[in-house]
Amino acid sequence: MIARRARSFVAGAFALAGLAVAASAQTPPPVAPSPFDFYVMTLSWSPGFCDLGGEDKSPEQCAVGSGDGFVVHGLWPDNRTSADPEDCNPNEDASPGDLAAARGLYPTDGLARYEYRKHGTCTGLSAADYFAAVRFVREQLTIPAMFKAPKQVQRLAPEAIEQAFIDANANLHPDNMAVTCARGELVDVRICLSKDLKAFSTCPKVSGHTCQRASVAVAPLR
Predict the structure, then answer these.
(1) CA distance 97 to 116
(2) How far is CA 121 from CA 60, 70, 71, 125, 192, in A?
(3) Which amino acids are annotated catalytic?
Protein backbone atom coordinates (compact mmCIF):
# COMPACT_ATOMS: atom_id res chain seq x y z
CA MET A 1 0.00 0.00 0.00
CA ILE A 2 2.84 2.42 0.87
CA ALA A 3 4.54 1.67 -2.44
CA ARG A 4 1.28 2.24 -4.34
CA ARG A 5 0.70 5.55 -2.59
CA ALA A 6 4.27 6.64 -3.31
CA ARG A 7 3.88 5.83 -6.98
CA SER A 8 0.50 7.55 -7.23
CA PHE A 9 1.80 10.66 -5.45
CA VAL A 10 4.51 11.02 -8.11
CA ALA A 11 1.95 10.38 -10.83
CA GLY A 12 -0.31 13.03 -9.36
CA ALA A 13 2.50 15.57 -9.53
CA PHE A 14 2.99 14.86 -13.22
CA ALA A 15 -0.77 15.20 -13.74
CA LEU A 16 -0.46 18.97 -13.30
CA ALA A 17 0.48 19.02 -16.98
CA GLY A 18 -2.57 16.92 -17.81
CA LEU A 19 -5.80 18.40 -19.01
CA ALA A 20 -4.16 21.36 -20.73
CA VAL A 21 -3.02 19.14 -23.61
CA ALA A 22 -6.52 17.89 -24.30
CA ALA A 23 -8.03 21.33 -23.77
CA SER A 24 -5.67 23.22 -26.05
CA ALA A 25 -8.20 23.34 -28.90
CA GLN A 26 -10.73 25.23 -26.77
CA THR A 27 -10.54 28.48 -24.87
CA PRO A 28 -11.05 27.87 -21.15
CA PRO A 29 -13.70 29.94 -19.37
CA PRO A 30 -12.59 32.68 -16.97
CA VAL A 31 -10.71 31.56 -13.87
CA ALA A 32 -12.99 31.69 -10.83
CA PRO A 33 -12.21 34.77 -8.70
CA SER A 34 -13.40 33.33 -5.37
CA PRO A 35 -10.87 31.70 -3.01
CA PHE A 36 -10.78 27.90 -3.19
CA ASP A 37 -8.11 25.34 -4.08
CA PHE A 38 -9.46 23.08 -6.83
CA TYR A 39 -12.61 21.77 -8.52
CA VAL A 40 -14.27 18.37 -8.25
CA MET A 41 -16.19 17.22 -11.32
CA THR A 42 -18.71 14.64 -10.13
CA LEU A 43 -20.13 12.30 -12.74
CA SER A 44 -23.12 10.44 -11.35
CA TRP A 45 -23.93 6.94 -12.58
CA SER A 46 -27.57 7.62 -13.36
CA PRO A 47 -28.90 4.03 -13.07
CA GLY A 48 -27.30 3.73 -9.62
CA PHE A 49 -28.75 7.09 -8.56
CA CYS A 50 -32.18 5.90 -9.64
CA ASP A 51 -31.86 2.56 -7.83
CA LEU A 52 -30.83 4.30 -4.61
CA GLY A 53 -33.90 6.51 -4.29
CA GLY A 54 -33.38 8.97 -7.12
CA GLU A 55 -36.50 7.83 -8.95
CA ASP A 56 -38.68 9.83 -6.56
CA LYS A 57 -36.47 12.92 -6.89
CA SER A 58 -36.00 12.86 -10.65
CA PRO A 59 -38.64 10.74 -12.43
CA GLU A 60 -37.71 12.19 -15.82
CA GLN A 61 -34.08 11.14 -15.42
CA CYS A 62 -35.06 7.68 -14.17
CA ALA A 63 -37.77 6.90 -16.71
CA VAL A 64 -37.45 3.70 -18.70
CA GLY A 65 -35.82 4.57 -22.00
CA SER A 66 -33.99 7.65 -20.71
CA GLY A 67 -30.71 5.97 -21.61
CA ASP A 68 -28.65 8.04 -19.14
CA GLY A 69 -25.31 6.61 -18.01
CA PHE A 70 -22.73 8.94 -16.52
CA VAL A 71 -24.26 12.40 -16.17
CA VAL A 72 -22.92 15.61 -14.67
CA HIS A 73 -23.96 15.94 -11.06
CA GLY A 74 -21.82 18.98 -10.38
CA LEU A 75 -18.59 20.92 -10.64
CA TRP A 76 -17.74 21.80 -7.05
CA PRO A 77 -15.18 24.26 -5.67
CA ASP A 78 -13.19 22.45 -2.97
CA ASN A 79 -10.40 23.14 -0.48
CA ARG A 80 -7.47 20.95 0.46
CA THR A 81 -7.80 21.30 4.23
CA SER A 82 -10.50 23.84 5.13
CA ALA A 83 -14.27 23.49 4.77
CA ASP A 84 -15.62 23.41 1.24
CA PRO A 85 -17.66 26.47 0.20
CA GLU A 86 -21.41 25.99 -0.29
CA ASP A 87 -24.50 28.20 -0.57
CA CYS A 88 -22.42 31.36 -0.89
CA ASN A 89 -25.23 33.44 -2.38
CA PRO A 90 -28.49 31.47 -2.27
CA ASN A 91 -30.47 34.47 -3.53
CA GLU A 92 -28.56 34.45 -6.81
CA ASP A 93 -30.19 32.32 -9.48
CA ALA A 94 -29.56 31.15 -13.02
CA SER A 95 -31.80 32.79 -15.60
CA PRO A 96 -33.95 30.80 -18.04
CA GLY A 97 -31.38 31.70 -20.71
CA ASP A 98 -28.54 30.35 -18.56
CA LEU A 99 -30.42 27.12 -18.00
CA ALA A 100 -31.17 26.80 -21.70
CA ALA A 101 -27.46 27.20 -22.46
CA ALA A 102 -26.66 24.47 -19.90
CA ARG A 103 -29.13 22.01 -21.39
CA GLY A 104 -27.52 18.69 -22.23
CA LEU A 105 -24.99 18.97 -19.40
CA TYR A 106 -27.21 17.99 -16.47
CA PRO A 107 -30.01 15.44 -16.65
CA THR A 108 -32.59 18.11 -15.67
CA ASP A 109 -32.89 21.89 -15.51
CA GLY A 110 -33.78 21.55 -11.85
CA LEU A 111 -30.42 20.00 -11.03
CA ALA A 112 -28.60 22.68 -13.04
CA ARG A 113 -30.41 25.41 -11.10
CA TYR A 114 -29.70 23.74 -7.76
CA GLU A 115 -26.03 23.19 -8.54
CA TYR A 116 -25.49 26.82 -9.49
CA ARG A 117 -27.14 28.04 -6.29
CA LYS A 118 -25.27 25.63 -4.00
CA HIS A 119 -21.86 25.43 -5.68
CA GLY A 120 -21.63 27.77 -8.65
CA THR A 121 -22.26 30.89 -6.58
CA CYS A 122 -19.16 30.00 -4.53
CA THR A 123 -16.89 30.36 -7.57
CA GLY A 124 -17.60 34.07 -8.10
CA LEU A 125 -18.49 33.30 -11.72
CA SER A 126 -21.73 34.36 -13.35
CA ALA A 127 -24.15 31.54 -14.10
CA ALA A 128 -23.20 31.76 -17.79
CA ASP A 129 -19.48 31.45 -17.05
CA TYR A 130 -20.02 28.72 -14.48
CA PHE A 131 -22.01 26.57 -16.89
CA ALA A 132 -19.37 27.28 -19.55
CA ALA A 133 -16.80 25.88 -17.11
CA VAL A 134 -18.94 22.78 -16.54
CA ARG A 135 -19.26 22.24 -20.30
CA PHE A 136 -15.55 22.83 -20.85
CA VAL A 137 -14.59 20.16 -18.30
CA ARG A 138 -17.21 17.66 -19.43
CA GLU A 139 -16.07 17.89 -23.03
CA GLN A 140 -12.47 17.10 -22.05
CA LEU A 141 -13.35 13.93 -20.15
CA THR A 142 -13.79 10.61 -21.95
CA ILE A 143 -16.26 8.08 -20.59
CA PRO A 144 -14.80 4.56 -20.93
CA ALA A 145 -16.48 2.47 -23.62
CA MET A 146 -17.60 -0.18 -21.11
CA PHE A 147 -19.98 2.37 -19.54
CA LYS A 148 -21.49 3.71 -22.76
CA ALA A 149 -24.47 1.34 -23.03
CA PRO A 150 -24.40 -1.60 -20.61
CA LYS A 151 -27.52 -3.77 -20.99
CA GLN A 152 -27.04 -5.90 -17.88
CA VAL A 153 -25.66 -5.55 -14.39
CA GLN A 154 -21.86 -5.65 -14.18
CA ARG A 155 -19.94 -6.39 -10.99
CA LEU A 156 -16.64 -4.53 -10.93
CA ALA A 157 -14.00 -3.70 -8.37
CA PRO A 158 -13.82 0.05 -7.67
CA GLU A 159 -10.17 -0.16 -8.77
CA ALA A 160 -11.30 -1.53 -12.15
CA ILE A 161 -13.68 1.41 -12.64
CA GLU A 162 -10.91 3.80 -11.66
CA GLN A 163 -8.49 2.11 -14.06
CA ALA A 164 -10.98 2.31 -16.93
CA PHE A 165 -11.14 6.11 -16.50
CA ILE A 166 -7.37 6.33 -16.20
CA ASP A 167 -6.95 4.35 -19.42
CA ALA A 168 -9.45 6.58 -21.23
CA ASN A 169 -8.03 9.94 -20.04
CA ALA A 170 -4.38 10.80 -20.53
CA ASN A 171 -2.52 11.99 -17.40
CA LEU A 172 -5.32 10.99 -15.02
CA HIS A 173 -4.02 9.11 -11.94
CA PRO A 174 -5.48 7.55 -8.78
CA ASP A 175 -4.58 10.59 -6.68
CA ASN A 176 -6.79 12.73 -8.93
CA MET A 177 -10.05 10.87 -8.43
CA ALA A 178 -12.43 8.72 -6.39
CA VAL A 179 -15.05 6.08 -7.15
CA THR A 180 -17.91 6.17 -4.65
CA CYS A 181 -20.56 3.60 -3.80
CA ALA A 182 -23.59 3.06 -1.57
CA ARG A 183 -25.41 -0.14 -0.61
CA GLY A 184 -23.16 -2.09 -2.97
CA GLU A 185 -23.87 0.02 -6.08
CA LEU A 186 -21.74 2.46 -8.04
CA VAL A 187 -22.79 6.04 -7.21
CA ASP A 188 -20.35 8.33 -8.99
CA VAL A 189 -16.84 9.07 -10.18
CA ARG A 190 -15.19 12.25 -8.87
CA ILE A 191 -12.31 13.87 -10.73
CA CYS A 192 -10.23 16.73 -9.33
CA LEU A 193 -9.12 19.63 -11.53
CA SER A 194 -6.98 22.69 -11.06
CA LYS A 195 -8.74 25.98 -10.55
CA ASP A 196 -7.76 27.15 -14.05
CA LEU A 197 -9.23 23.92 -15.49
CA LYS A 198 -6.03 23.15 -17.37
CA ALA A 199 -4.89 20.13 -15.38
CA PHE A 200 -5.92 17.29 -13.14
CA SER A 201 -5.25 18.02 -9.48
CA THR A 202 -3.93 15.81 -6.70
CA CYS A 203 -6.63 15.73 -4.00
CA PRO A 204 -6.07 13.35 -1.08
CA LYS A 205 -9.26 14.51 0.63
CA VAL A 206 -11.26 13.22 -2.34
CA SER A 207 -9.19 10.24 -3.51
CA GLY A 208 -8.97 8.93 0.04
CA HIS A 209 -12.73 8.24 0.02
CA THR A 210 -12.80 5.77 -2.86
CA CYS A 211 -15.22 2.88 -2.25
CA GLN A 212 -13.58 0.10 -0.21
CA ARG A 213 -15.81 -2.79 -1.32
CA ALA A 214 -14.30 -5.72 -3.20
CA SER A 215 -16.84 -5.13 -5.98
CA VAL A 216 -19.87 -2.99 -6.73
CA ALA A 217 -22.90 -3.45 -8.97
CA VAL A 218 -22.99 -1.22 -12.02
CA ALA A 219 -26.67 -1.09 -12.93
CA PRO A 220 -27.61 -1.17 -16.64
CA LEU A 221 -29.06 1.79 -18.48
CA ARG A 222 -32.81 2.28 -18.19
Answers:
(1) 14
(2) 26, 24, 21, 7, 19
(3) 73, 115, 119
